[in-house]
Amino acid sequence: MMGGRTVEVEAGHHELVAYLRRRIAKALEKPLTQVVLSFGSRVLHGMQLVGEVFGEVEIVDISAFLSDECGPVEEWMDGDHPQGLTEYMPELYSKLKDAEHIEEVRISATYMTGQNNITAQMRAVLLDWVVQVHDKDHWRHLPAQPRRHGQAVSLFLTVQVLDRYLQANQIHRNRLQLAGCVALLIASKLEEKYPVPVERLVYYCDGAYTKEDVFRMEAEMLTTFGFNLYTPTACHFLDLYKKANRCDDIHGFVVQYLMELAFFDMQISGEPPSKIAAAATFLSNQLWDRDVYWPEGMASYTGHSEDAIQRDSQKMRELLTAAPTSALSQVYRKFSHARFGRVAGRFP
To answer: What count of Cα atoms within 13 Å lies in the side-chain half-sphere of residue 288?
Structure first.
C-alpha cells in the first residue's frame, strides 16, 4: 500500500471500484483526487466491478499510490454537483457506457449507401443549416438567458435523431429539411426548458412546410424509434471528460468545437459516442500542448486507449484544418464568437 502502510478494506463483488477507492483514501488519509489503485501492473478505474477485476477470491493485495497524471478521473464529483447526483454518478456513467452499444441506437458509418434519393453531402449541408438554426434560436431570440447544458445536448441529440431516422427510412430529398426540423423539435422538447416553437421552425424553412407537415413527421419519427429517445450522445460524455481532463472553460470549448466539426464525417458518426468525445479530448490536449496527451487515467476511465482513438482524432484534425475555408462554415462561425472564447480562430 501507499508508503508501506497496509489497510484492510472490505468490498462486495458487485461494488464499483470507485467506492472501494473512496474508503481506501479515507483510511489512508490521502486526497481522493490523486489516489490510484493498481492490481499488479494494471491500473483500476472506478467503473469496474470489484468482481470483474479480482474474480471470486476472498482476499486480494492491491497497491495505492498518488499521481497527478493517473488520478481517479471518475472521482471529480463533489457535493456541489449541479444536479445533486454525486452519489449516483458512477452508476449513471456506467449506464451511459452500456447504452451506447445497444444495437437499436447505434449509427452505422455506411447507412447513407442505403438511401436512394439523398447523399452524404446533402446530409452535411442539412447539418450545417441545423447548426445555424440551433445557434440562432438560442442566442438571437433568447440573448438574456445563460448558457445551459441542455442546449448543447439538444444539438447533439438532433443529429442523432436525424441519423437514426435516415438509417431506418428512405426519404426523398424534398423532405430532408423537414426531417432536420423535426429532429431539432424533438430534441428541444426532450432536453430544453423551452422547446423551439413549431411556428418558428416553419419560418426558418421559408414556408416550405406547414405545421401539419411538422406534426406528421414528428409522429412518424417517434413511431420509428418506438419513443425510445433516452440514449447517450457524445455530448453526454463531454462534461464528464472535460472534468476528468481538468479542462478550463476555453479548453472545454475546444473539445466541443472538435466534436461538432465531427458531425460532418460519416466515419466518425458511426463510432460510439464515448469514443468520439475521447478522440476530441485527446486532440484538444495535443492542440493545448499538454505534457501528456492521453494520461493513463483518461485511457482507463474512458475505456479508449490512445491507439484506439488515433484515427478519429486525425480525421478531426483534418476537419479542423479545413474549417476556415470550408463551404459548410456554421460550426466555424459559431466557435469564432466571443461566447465560445473565439476558439475557432486559435487553430488556423
So the answer is: 24
Question: Residue 310: exposed, middle, or buried by beta-carbon count in 10 A (0-12, 13-18, 19+)?
Answer: middle
In CATH, what number is assigned to the domain containing residue 61? 3.10.20.90
Is 80 inside any structural domain?
no
Number of domains into which the chain is organized:
3
The string of DSSP letters for 242-282 reads HHHTT--HHHHHHHHHHHHHGGG-HHHHTS-HHHHHHHHHH
For residues 311-322, average pLDDT = 97
Indicate whether 110 and 220 sit together in one domain. yes
Q: What is the DSSP string of 203-219?
A: HHTTTSS-HHHHHHHHH
- Give dist(CA 162, CA 158) in Å, integer: 6
For 135, other C-beta atoms within 10 Å of its C-beta total 20
Provide the whole-model pTM.
Answer: 0.79
Instruction: Return all residues near 17 (Cβ < 8 A) that are at least 6 apart.
Output: 37, 44, 45, 46, 47, 48, 49, 50, 53
DSSP letter at 44 equals: P
Kindly state whether residues 324 and 238 are assigned to the same domain.
Answer: yes
Judged against a pLDDT cut of 50, whether residue 146 lies above it is answered with: no
Q: Which residue has the higher pLDDT, 307 or 2?
A: 307
Rounded Cα distance, 219 and 215, in Å? 6
Q: Is 69 helix (H, G, I), strand (E, B) or coil?
A: coil
In which region does residue 347 sit, left (phi positive, over 0), alpha (psi from -120 to 50) or beta (all else)?
Answer: beta
Pick the last residue of a domain from 33, 58, 75.
75
Q: 264 is in which domain, residue-wise? A: 234-346
CATH code (residue 214) = 1.10.472.10
- Candidates 7, 70, 5; CA nearest to 35 is 70
Rounded to whole angstroms, how far apart are CA atoms 285 and 278? 11
pLDDT band per the 50, 70, 90 thresholds, residue 3: low
Cell 413549431 found at: 198
Q: Write down how long the chain is.
A: 348
> Cell triple for residue 30?
490521502
C-alpha–C-alpha distance, residues 180 and 20, integer Å = 46
Residue type (1 letter), 29: E
